[in-house]
Amino acid sequence: MLSIRLENLSFCYQQGTPFEKTALRNITLTIEPGTFLGVAGLSGAGKTTLLRHLSGFLRPTSGRITFDGLPVDAHGARDLRRRVGLVFQHPEDQLFEETVYKDIAFGLSGAGVSPEEAAERVREALEAVGLGEELLERSPFGLSGGEKRRVAIAGVMVMKPSVLVLDEPSVGLDPRGRGEILDHIARMRRKRGVTVVLATHDMEQMARYAEKVVVLKGGSIVSEGTPREVFRDAGALESAGLEPPRITRLMMKLKKALPDIDDGIGTVEEAAEEIKRVYRGKGCGWRRHDTRHAHGQICSRQFDSSPVGPEDEDTAGGRLYDACISC
Ligand SMILES: Nc1ncnc2c1ncn2[C@@H]1O[C@H](COP(=O)(O)OP(=O)(O)OP(=O)(O)O)[C@@H](O)[C@H]1O
Ligand SMILES: [Mg+2]
Asked: The domain spanning residue 107 has which CATH number?
């Protein structure tokens, strides 16, 4: 377990040259062990630069980053990279061995792991990314893009890092592949208590997997909190060029009619539960119309607590509502 703290961290590429570029500005952030942190932001917002600090690949230009309260050098940069596994953006570009097995096991050479243990760990990592053992003796270059991506992720997982840092791991994968990789990672996190840091501009992924989200814009944090808090902070999200998930936008519209509803919800499953919660025992929340003939809308669902007037009794058990969304 490793806790990571960034204090007023700023980073400038090519400082002192005409190409100087400030990529991070005064970032203060704590990543507690076991958290799933999402880092959101448009292209160029600073996600990759932030993630590279987390595994000691970059050092701050000003401010500091500590791991369990100590700077990178106190841990040793090499040792730290073992504990914080970074899956680069387009990790498949880094495959280079003759076989998938050798590529996944590469990091274990020199780590004092016996061949038996290495074989066991490679199999576990392969399973964790949802690939079959039949791939182990194949060349990584003959795999599909999605398979290569999974092999590259397995090569980081095999080191059993305390913190897994993923830089847009699902970009370019088909929708099923995207969900599968993150589902595998979420399962591994639950099993081993690993901290996960995921950079993405996909807010649906944030809603589904992250416990905490930071939104970057021009190298600064413009919003942070739980996914629900961040989605509700619509102004900040919009200023960062992002949009909440589609289901959140629907919940925001519903809130105009149903003030009780939680409009920060970001997954369809949670939205279904929330809509049920709001309706349960309450009737549908829409005021009945005096005459059904005015709108002709008949709610076919029964709500025990909603009042029924004698005028409804000839509608075969139906009740009258104005644009009832349950129907
Ligand atoms: N090696 C570099 N030299 C100079 N500037 C750089 C370098 N790498 C990145 N930058 C600049 O730093 C800023 C942040 O880049 P970064 O790669 O961290 O963004 P990002 O949020 O990861 O974007 P993307 O979603 O496209 O991957 C950008 O303006 C980028 O142009
Ligand atoms: Mg990037």
From this structure: 3.40.50.300
